[in-house]
Amino acid sequence: MMKLGLFFEGCGHHIAAWRDPDVDAHARQSLAHYVEIAQLAERGKFDFLFTADTNATFGPDDADAWARTMAASRLEPITLLSALAAVTQRIGLVATATTTYFEPFHVARFFASLDQISGGRAGWNLVTSLAVAEAYNFGREAHASHADRYARAHEFAKVVLGLWDSWEDDAVIADKEHGLYLDRAKLHFLNHKGQHFSVRGPLTVHRSPQGHPVIVQAGQSEDGRELAAETAEVIFTVQQDLEAGRAFYADVKRRAGAYGRSPDSIKIMPGVMTAIGHTRAEAEDKYGRLQALIAPEIGVKQLSAYFGMDLSTFPLDGPVPEPANTNQEVGRVKVMVELARRENLSIRQLYQRVIGQRAHRVVIGTPADIADGLEQWFTAGAADGFNILPLTFPGGLRDFVDLVVPELQRRSLFRADYEGHTLREHLGLPRPLNRWSTSAAAGLRRVS
Q1: Nearest-CA neighbor of 91 among 389, 415, 426, 387?
Q2: Are residues 120 and 199 in the same domain?
Q3: What is the pLDDT of residues 4-24, one digit of tens each?
Q4: Are 97 and 110 in contact (CB under 8 A)?
Q5: What are the two backbone dihedrals, phi and then psi, of residue 161, each rounded to the nearest 5 degrees?
Q6: 397 — phi, psi (to 5°)?
Q7: Same structural domain, 278 and 198
Q8: 273/389 same-domain check
Q9: Closest Cα to residue 448, out of 153, 124, 98, 155?
């Protein structure tokens, strides 16, 4: 069965979604809005909700452009997902936290707490931060280099995994008669000392119902792939071309083997924006109306940010230049450049193709067309599932749940009901053994 994540984002995933007449432009700050999305996705049997995050809005020179988008504000994701845990029963809850601007103990505690609150449904999306502007909010004048961020991320992940193993599964005995709450021999200090971190532990949260939260990762550069192969259990990737998607899929699965991991221990889920109509013409009209609302200055400004250079100095209808050496979103920029070269796109055509959906693949059409587009990649070995990006919320999601999900179920490609209660059970991932357990040597992968 294919896996489905729901990437929820304010009013919708298209950059102009907030301008759609059927969308509440103020919903981005409303808990009721997100409750509706979460319960609708759970009705559709999605594996998980996924929310991205950044600790900045824009740089000092970008304020005018960002003022035209809905991305200038967002709620803190752990707080939001904790609230959604109380109004859902089965669906997983995945949030982003950066390894560049947080500390491992913070992240370990946040997600272990969310996992306990939700009964084993939490996942951590590990990122090294995309926006250079984040540095300004943490007392820095510049973003760390790409290589340095990933070196820190490798060690960060090891520390978090170690902290999540602080408590063995049966550490809490709660012996009321003898007044003994825990078996001291089953609570462990990490005592990590490395290049970037010195962390004693133990964590202040019990071991998770699912062993530990699922680790999600979204990098697709060379460094990102290596980090994913070592640590990730779900990979959220940007892919436009089927053959490139198959190559990425095979490459990451191969790399995982070098770390002693089974290929099935990583689920690769490309992002897909969906525009759904009862007819293809209706779907194309929905998408086209939003595309027409992308202001040229926004398209050029955002494409310039990806490319690390001011593209407004180039002819808009001229060829796409080579990007500058950029320190952010290396893999995503590579996808954009390959698309521009493959289809001989101008700067204007490229921003029209990628900015509305942040370079993700778009599938437009009837429910059968959408199902065809997902099935093709799933059966061709390019994906284990997909992170779905509806055009608008809640309407685009409702279309997917009510129209596309039944079509996938009819084809026996997607579940009719949840298989279990934890996110690991949904994804078919094994429950990791605690590294301190006497049975760990006989069992599953651990990172030490």
Answers
A1: 426
A2: yes
A3: 999 998 888 888 888 899 899
A4: yes
A5: -60, -40
A6: -70, -40
A7: yes
A8: yes
A9: 155
